Request: fold
Amino acid sequence: MVRWREVRILYLRELRAALREKMIVTNSIILPIVLYPFILWAMFTGIMFVQGQTEGFVSRIVIQGLPPAHAMLGRQIGRDDRIEVRKTALTQAEAERQIRDGDLDALVVFTAAPDQGQALPDNFAVTITSDAAKERSAGARDRLKGVIARHREAWLKRESGRLGVAPAAWQGFTIQERNIASSQQMGSFLMSLMLPLFFVIMVAMGCFYPAVDSTAGERERNTWETLMSLAASRGSIVTAKYLYVATMGCVAGLLNMAAMALSMKPILSPILAKTGETLDFSISPWAMLVGVLGAVLLAGFVAAGMMIFASFARTFKDGQSMITPFYMIVLMPILLVNGQGVKLSWAMAFIPVGNIALMVREALTGSFPWPQMAVTVVISLVLILASLRLATAILRFEDVVVGSYGGSLQRLVRDRLLGRSPKSTEVRT
Amino acid sequence: MSQSTVAVSELVKVFYDEARGEVRAVDGISFECQPGEIFGLLGANGAGKTTTLRMLATILQPTAGTASIMGHEVCAEPEEVRRSLGFYSASTALYPRLSARETLEFFARINGYPENRLAARVASVIERFGIGEYVQARVEKLSQGMKQKVSIARTVMHDPPVLIFDEPTVGLDVLNAIDMQKVIGEFREEGKTIVFSTHIMSEAEKLCDRIAIVHRGRIHATGTLASLREATGCHYLEDIFVHYVRQAEAA
Reply:
C-alpha cells in the first residue's frame, strides 16, 4: 500500500541527501547544463580555429602568361594581402616540385582560350597547379579561383555590354538561391538535429547514479536495513525511490535542453556572422510542453528499468555494472532514429525511446503530428507500467529485497517468475 | 500473558541456499516479554538470533509460527509493528549525508510521531543524549561514538514501547560499549520492553532480566540468571551456555 504522506517524507529525504552528493550533483545537474554546450562550443571553436589558421596563411604564387588586356587582374591579385606573387620564372616541372616541397603554393598559367572561346578577343584560359593534399596549397587555389572568377565575370559583363549583348544571353541560365525558412525555423531545425540525442543521453545519465545510489548505495552504506525497519510501507518506500530517480532524470533532460537552447546562439554566432545568417534558437511554448512530457515519459521508463537492474546489486560498483547494459540499450533506438529525414511516422511511434526523441524533435521544428504523438505517449506509458509491474513482481522476493539474492535479473525471471524453480521466499510489499 | 508486549510462538524461518538446500535458521522459537524487562537472546554467531529479531522487526517474514508486538501481528500488521518498535543493529547505519538533527526529524516523522510535538521531542532527545554540540553536523563527519549516540537517539525518536537491540556493542570500544549498556538499562527503567541479542556472556549477565540460550535456531533454556544457575549447577553464564549447547548437541 502506498501512503502519500510517507512517500513525501521519504522522497524529500532522498532528494536532500542526493543534492549533497557530489557525484549525483555532477552527473544529474552540472553535466546536463555544462557538458554538451561545452562540447558544442569546443567543436565550433575548433572549426573556427582551423579556419583561422588556414585564412592566416599568405599564399605564395607564381603567375605566368597573364594577357596584357587583363593587367587589371594582376593588379587585383597583387593588392590582395593574402597573396604573395613571386616574380620567378619557373618551368612547370620546377613549379610542381616546389609546390610538393611546400616552397610554393600555386602556379597560375594563362593561355589563349581554346576553340570557340577565341571568338571573343582577349579571352583566356587559366590553369592553376596546386597540391590538394596540402591545406595551404588548396587554400591558395581557392583564393585564386575566387579572384579570377570575379574578374572574369566583370570582364564578360563589360565586353557583352560593349557588344550590345544582354548578360542573360551569354550567361545561359543562372541559379539564385532563396531560403523561405525564417530565422526561427532555421534555428529550430539546427536544434532538432542535436537536442533529441543529447536529451535522451542526459535523461538516462540523470537517472543512472540516483538509481544506483538509492538501491545498491543503500546496501553498501548499511542503510538498507534501517530503511526496511521504518514504519513506512514497502510500497511507499519503493514509490518514493522511483519518483526520486525519475525526478533526477527528468531534471537532467530539461536542464540540458534549456542549456543547449540558450547556449547555441552565442556559440554559433561567430560562424553565423560570416555567412550573414541570423538564427533564432527560441523554443515555442508547445515545444516546451512536449519536451517536458518527453522528459517525464523517458525518465519514468528509464528510472524503472535502472532500478530493476540495480536492485540486484550489493555495492555501488555492482550497481554501475548492472545498469550499464540497460543504459546502452536505451541509447540504441536513438542511433536508429537520429538520421536526417526520419520522421515520427506511425511505425516510428512504436519504437520505444526513439519515439520520444522523434516527438521532441518534431516539436522543436514546429511540427506536431498529434495522433503519432498520442501513440508515443501510450507506448511509453505501457512500457512504464510493464517495468513497474516487473519491479513489483521482483520485490515480492524477500531475498531480493534484503539483498541476499545472489543471481541476476535474468535468472530470477527464468527460475522464479516463469516458475522453473519452486524455491522462493516472498515478502509483503 | 495478556500483559506481554512481545509474544513469539513457534517461529520458524527457512532459507533456501543453493549450496546447502533448505536451511532452518530459526526452528520453532517461542518467548514472551513484559514491559520494563530486558530479554536477552544469547547464542553463538549463526545461532538464529538476528534472523529472529529481523522477523520481529518485519524485515523478514516467518516461514511458520506467529509473533506480535504490542498486540500487532508481524505478518498481518507490519507497519503497526514497526511503528511500535525501535530497531537497532550493527547493520542499521545512519544516512551519512543528513545532519544529526535532520536524521532525528526524519525518523520521528516517518515513524508517525505527531508533527505538532516533533520540535519539542527533537529538543528533548538532543538534550538527553548530549548531541547538541554536533547536531548540525552531517553524520558522515561524526566520530564512531557520536554516531552511536545519534543511532540510539533515532531508534527511540518516535518513543516506541518496544526496543530491539541486535548485538548493539559489536564494533564498539569498551567505553562506548559501557555507554550503550547504560542507555539500555535506562530504557528499562522507563518501562520499555527490550529484546536484546548478544554473544558476549558478560553483557548478557550484566543487563538481562531473563536470558534465552539459542543454539541452531532453537531456544534450549529460558530464565533468570539465578534460575539457570540453579537448573545447571553452574555459576558462570559461560558455563551455563556451554552446558546447554552440549546437551543440545548430544540430543
Notes: Chain A has two domains: 4-47+182-395, 57-165. The domain at 57-165 of chain A is CATH 3.40.190 (D-Maltodextrin-Binding Protein; domain 2). Residues 424-429 of chain A have pLDDT under 50 and may be disordered.
